[in-house]
Amino acid sequence: MYRIPFSALLLVTLSNAQSLTGKATYYGGNENGNACGYNDLEYATFPFGYSAACGSDVFNDGYGCGKCYKITCIGPYGNNPGCSCDSSTPSVIVSCMDQCPECATSHFDLNPKAMERIVGDGLAGTCGVIETTYERVSCDYTSNIKIRAKTGTSAYWYGLHIDDIAGNGAVSNVEIKSSGSSSYDTTCDKSQGPSFWICNGGFPLSLPLSVRLTNDAGEQITGNNVITNLDGSAEFDFGSNFGGISVPTTTSSTSTSTTSSTSSTSNTGSTSSTTSSTSTSSTSTPSYEYIEVENHSATSKYYLSVLFRNIEASMCGESISSVQLYQNNAWRANNQYYYEDDLNAHRFAWDHTGVDFDQMLPISLKIVLNTAREITLWGVITDMTPGSKFATTELICDGTLPPTPATPSPTTANPTAPTTAYPTAETICIDEHALDWRSYDHEIKLNGNRFNLKGLSWFGFETGNNYVYGTDKHTVDWYLDWMVDNGFNAIRLPFSKAFIDESQSNRNDYLEVVQKAGLKGLLVMPDLHSLAKGAYTEGLASRADMISAWSTMTTLLKDEWNIMAADLFNEPHDVSNNGWGAYIDDMEAVADSIWATGVNWLAVVEGTNWQCSVINCAWGENLQGVKDQGVTFDNTNYGANRLLWSPHVYGADVTGNSYSEAGWYAHWGYLHDGQTTSNQAAQAIGEFGTRYTGGMVNWLDDLVDYLIQIDQRNTFFWCLNPNSGDTGGLLKDDWTTPETGKLGQLDKLQPDPSTITYDSTNGRVCVAFEGGVISTSSTTSTTTTNPPTTTTTTTTTKAPTTSTTTTTTKAPTTTTTTTKAPTTSTTTTTTQAPTTTTTSKAPTTTTSTTTTKAPTTTTTTQAPTTTTTTEAPTTTTTTKAPTTSTTTSTKAPTTTTTTTTTKAPTTTTTTTTTKAPTTTTTTKAPTTTTTTTTTKAPTTTTTTKPPTTTTTRVSSDKIYVVNAESTQAYYFTFILKNIDDCSENIDQVQINKRGEWVDADQSYVEEGRGNRYAWLYKNNIRFDQLLPVSVRIVFNNEKTITISQLIDNLTPYYVFTSDKTCSSIDDGSSDNNTPSPVDMNTYPVEVETCEGSNPWYYTAKLINIPSSITVTKVEMKDSSGNNDWIESTQYQQWSGCYVFDQGNRPYELPLSFRVTASDGDNTQTITASDPVITSYAQGETGSMSTSFDDLQTASGFEADEESSGDSSPGLIGIILIVVASLSLIAIIIGITCYLKKRDNNKAYHNKDGALDTITLNNNDSNITPIVDEESSSPEVAMATRQTNIVPQYEE
C-alpha cells in the first residue's frame, strides 16, 4: 500500500458538496464479498485501501456504490475522554463499497484501514464511535473504467459489474447497443440486487457491444465496441473515464483535456465522451526532494530491507508498481512491502535466493511505475550497515538531474542473458524469420519476453497408425481449434525414426499438421519418441541414429516459423545414474547437429531412469545428475541459453509409486529455485497425465499446486488422445466431450497463457505474452539492436494505430533507430551508463518521460476468494495488458544495453502490500503481549475495555504461536516461536482438520521472525469452521508435541501461548496421541450460494465433504413445481461451485438439494429433508442436516439395497449361491484351456490404448511386464519398467 500525505491529494470537491456533521464506526471490512460486487479493494492506487459501508439514501439500493466521501474526525462521539483524532491525518477519502443496513445517511461504517488512519490510537478500541464531518468528493481514479461480465453470460442473458468510476463515482444508468444496431436497445438496472447490473431487452445480443454509461450527475460517456466476447467473468477496458480522466494513447508531461472531445483507443475498441466538463490532467506540482534510500534495521546479508522516502508518485498522476533489485544480470521485484508510519517511509524487502546480499555490493535498485516509467538507481547501496543512508539525484516525478556520479558495475554471474537487447512488451509483432527462442532466468523467452507455455501432446505419428489419432471423428482443424479455444498454445508432436524414414508421404503428412497448427497460432515441439514405430520402451538410441533422425526433421521443418523446440529423445530410461555425463554428451552432440543447420530451436533434454532419491521416479523424470554428478548441459554453443529441461512426471496409475513434494523437488524441482547456480535454464514438464479419478485427483491437484508454488507453469499435458491406456486424455472416449476436471486444473496452472496470431500474408507473428485478444492494429512495432560496449538507443514510438514489421539490426558502434511519430508526441531521449551519464535534449521539443496512466488490478493469491498475502517468496504478481503504445529506452549498467521496455495504455501492474506489524496495535512477542478485546457494532457501540492494561507475559521457553498478518478464513498461517532448541529436528507441523492431522502446505524461515507455516483452503472447509485449532509438531524421530485447541481466533498478530517446551517431546503425555477420526455426522453437508446466482442461473458450493470421497452428482429442485431434480451442468474447478442453468426457469425459492458421492467402490446419495437455500444472495448458506457416513467402514455406501426381514439367505439364496459357484468353476476351466491354447502369447493395453503383443518364454514367468505407454506396433519385446506395475491383459 502507498500512504499518500493528505496535503498531496488532489481533492476535487463536487459542486454541490458541503461539509455535514455525522458519525463513523468501523467493522472488519468486506473487500471481496461486498454488497456492491466489486472484485477487490485497491491498495496501490485510489482508493488506497480506504472503503466504507454506507446506508440509507447514500447506498440507495446499490445505485450509490462507488461514491466517494471525505470523512474528517472531529472527536469522540459522546463522553469518551480517551478517544482522540490523529493530529497528522484526521481525514480520509473512502469509497462506498458495501452496505450498512442500519446506518443513517450521516453514518459511515469504515473499514479498519480507514478508521486507523484518522483516530489517535489506531484500532486499540478507545474510539469505537467518533463524531465526523463528511462531504462528497471526486473519486480520483486515474485508470479507465473496467467492465466485468457476470458468470453465465450469453447472447440471451447478460449481467455486468462496472469498476473504477472516476468523478462522481456512481452510475445511474447502463445501456448496451449490439453490433449493427442504431440504438441502445438493451438497458441494465440493479433490480436483482445491488451487486451487479442485470440487462433487459435487445436479445439476442450481437458482438461487439457498445456501452453507454450515465452517472448520477447526468453526464454520459460511451465506449464503442467495448465488449468483444460473451465469456463469463471476462473483463474489458472501457477506454476512458468520467471527469476527463482517461488513458491517452500518447501523452506529454502535462496536458489539459476537455472531455467533450476526449477519445482514446484501447485493444477493446474506441471510446467517446459526451460530457461537457473540462478538467486538467492529473499531473500536479511534482516533488523537488530527491529520493532517499536507507538500510532498514532488519537488513542483513540474508534479507535486504530498504526504506524509501520522497517517492509519492501520486503527485505526478502515477503509482509505484514495484521496486526491483538487480541480481545476476536480471531485475527481480520486491517480495514484501510495508508503510512504516513511525519512520515516515516506504519499506521494500527482498528474500534471500541463494546469493548473499553483501556479495552484490554495490546494489542497484529500480523503481517501476504503473506508466512503464522507470527510475534506476545504479549502485545506490554501498554497504549493508542498518541505518546507512544513501543520497540520490533522482526525483520521483521529474526523473534524473545531471550529472549522476559514476558507480561501479553491479556484480554479475554466469550464465548471462543473451547480448541482444530485445524489446519487452505485453504484445509485440515479429517477422516470422526473426523469432528467437531462449531459456534463461528459469523462464522461456521469445525475443527477450517471458513466454507462458501451455501445451499438450497429440500422439499417433510415432505408432503404426502413421498419423495423429482421432481424424476418423473430426478433422485436424477441428482439434486445433479446440486447442486454441481451451487456451493451449503449443503441441508436442511425437514421431519415430522409422516413420520419417519410411516415405516422403509420411514426412509430408507430419509437415501438413505442423503448418495447419501454425495458421492457428499454435507452436509445435517435435519429439523423437522412438526409433521403431511404437517402440518407446527401447531405451536411448545411439548418437548416430538420433543425429540422423534430426537431420531429416530439420530439413523438413527448418522453414516453419512455429517450431519452438526439439525434444531430443523420449524417456531414456536405460541411462544409469553413473552414465549421466555420457548422456549429456550425447544430448549436446545432437543439439549441436540441429543448431548447425541454422535453426534456433530450443534443445529439450528429458530425465533418465527411475532410480531417484526420496521415492522412485517415472521414466524421464530423473534430473538429479546436475547436482549429484555435477554435470550440466553446455549452454553456450550456437548463441547460448537454448537448453530446456523437461522431466516426465506421473503418479501411481502409471508408476505405482507414491508421491511427495520432497520427491518432486529432489528429482527436478531444485533446478528451478535458483539454488543451483550452474543452472539458469527453464523447465517445461514434458509429460504428466492421469485419468483423474479416485486418489489420482489429489495427485494432479497437488502437483499443480506445487508447480504454482515454485512458479514453474510451463507444461505439455499427456495427452489430447482418449486412447491413452493408463492416463486417458483431455477428450472423453467419444473424442468430443472435454474432460473438464483436468482442463480446470490446467487453467489454474497457467491462467494467462501467451496467445499468438499469424499473418501469413505479411509473414508476421504477433504475441500477447500475458494472454488476451491481440489487436494487431494497435500493436507497436519493435526494433531489435545488438549493441556494442556503449550504445545510445533513441526510440520514438509510431502512431498507435500503425504497426510495422520487427527488424533486427547489428551494429559495431552506436545505433540509433527512429520511427516516425505523430505531431502530438514528445520525443524522449535519455541515456545513462554507470560510468558516464549523458542527457540529450531535442532542440525543438520538451524533454520528458512519456507516461501513460494504466488501471490497476488486484493480486489474488492462495485462496478461491481474494487473499492478500505477503512475505512468501513468490507472492508478487504482475498482470499485463495485451497491447503496447509507448517505448522508453535506458542504458544497462554493464556492457549490454538493457531491454527496451514498453507499456500499454492498459498496462496493469500491482504490488500487493500489507502493513508492517509495527504499524498495528497488537500483541508483541516474546517478551510482553498486550491483549485488548473490542466489541463493536455499527449503530450501538459497546467497547469492552479493562480498567487497566492487561499484559500477558510469555515464558522465555514456552512454545507459542502468533497469527501471521495474512491469516483468514481461506488461508491459515502462523509463526511458531520458541522452537530454536528443536527446530532442526522438526519434520512437519500439522493442524487437526476434522479429526485428521494435516501437514502444512507451505513453510518459510523468516529472518528475524521465526518459522512460518501455512495451509491452503481445500475441500470447501474454511478455517474459521475449525476453531479452536489444535497444533502438532512432528519430529524426525516420529515423536510429537501436541498442543490441543490452541488457536481460537483468526485475528492477525494474535498470540496463543502453551505450556509446552522443546523438552516436552519426551513427556509421553496422551496429548500427543492422534485423535480419533471425527464422526462426520457432527458436520452435516452445507450448501453455500456462489456469486452471480439469480432465478435464471444458480450456482453453489458444497461444504463439509470428506476428503476421502468424490462428489459424482449434485442435483437441485426448486419450489415452482415445474421441475423435478435438475442435475448440475458444470463444476467450476477454480471456485468449487456447481452450476444449474437448465430446466424450467425462473427458479422459485426455496431450493432443495440431493448429493451423490463415491468412495471409489460404492456410492451414497443424501437428500435434504427440508429446503436448504432461501435467498440468491452470495454467501447464503443452508444445512442439508445430514452427512456422508464414515468411509473407513463404507457404511451407507451401497452397491445393492439391503433386504428386509429375515437376514438368513433362504432356499432361493442357497440355490443362487450353488449356481454361481458352478458357473465360476466352469469359467476358470475355460480360461485355463484358452491360455494353454494361446501358448503364453498375450496382448496388453498401452498408454495409447492400442494392443501390443508380448512373447513370454516359460523361463520368464517371474518377470512382471509393465503397462506400455505409447506403443501401437504389432510387436514389442518384453521390457521391465517399474516392476510393481501389473499389466492389463486383454483377449
Task: Explain what the structure shows.
- With 1291 residues, the chain is an alpha+beta fold.
- Strand 28 (394-395) and strand 29 (399-400) form a beta hairpin.
- The N and C termini lie far apart (66 Å).
- Mean pLDDT is 74; it is low at 1-17, 244-287, 399-425, 775-955, 1067-1081, 1190-1196, 1198-1210 and 1240-1291.
Strand tally is 72
**Total number of helical segments?**
13
Give helix % range: 10-25%
Anisotropy-based shape: globular
Major beta sheet, specifics? 10 strands, antiparallel
Which structural class best describes the helix and strand composition?
alpha+beta
Gist of the model:
The chain is an alpha+beta fold. Helices cover 11% and strands 27% of the residues. Helix 11 runs parallel beside helix 12 (740-749).
Topology record:
Elements: E1 20-26, E2 51-54, H1 56-59, E3 68-76, E4 91-99, E5 107-110, H2 112-118, E6 130-137, E7 146-149, E8 159-163, E9 171-177, E10 186-189, E11 197-200, E12 209-215, E13 220-227, E14 235-237, E15 256-258, E16 265-266, E17 269-273, E18 278-280, E19 292-295, E20 303-309, E21 320-327, E22 330-333, E23 336-340, E24 345-351, E25 363-369, E26 374-381, E27 389-391, E28 394-395, E29 399-400, E30 423-424, E31 427-431, E32 437-440, E33 443-446, E34 449-450, E35 454-457, H3 476-485, E36 490-496, H4 497-502, H5 504-519, E37 523-530, H6 543-557, E38 565-567, H7 580-595, E39 602-605, H8 625-628, E40 643-645, H9 652-655, H10 661-667, E41 682-683, H11 696-709, E42 715-717, H12 740-749, E43 755-759, E44 764-768, E45 783-786, E46 807-810, E47 831-832, E48 837-838, E49 886-888, E50 900-903, E51 928-930, E52 951-953, E53 960-963, E54 971-977, E55 986-993, E56 996-999, E57 1002-1006, E58 1010-1016, E59 1029-1035, E60 1040-1047, E61 1055-1057, E62 1086-1089, E63 1098-1103, E64 1110-1117, E65 1126-1127, E66 1130-1132, E67 1137-1140, E68 1152-1158, ...
Parallel strand pairs: 1-5, 2-4, 30-50, 35-36, 35-42, 36-37, 38-39, 39-40, 40-41, 45-46
Antiparallel strand pairs: 1-6, 2-5, 3-4, 3-6, 7-8, 7-14, 8-11, 9-10, 9-12, 10-11, 12-13, 13-17, 15-18, 16-17, 19-20, 19-27, 20-24, 21-22, 21-25, 23-24, 25-26, 28-29, 31-44, 32-33, 33-34, 43-44, 47-48, 49-50, 51-52, 53-54, 53-61, 54-58, 55-56, 55-59, 57-58, 59-60, 62-63, 62-70, 63-67, 64-65, ...
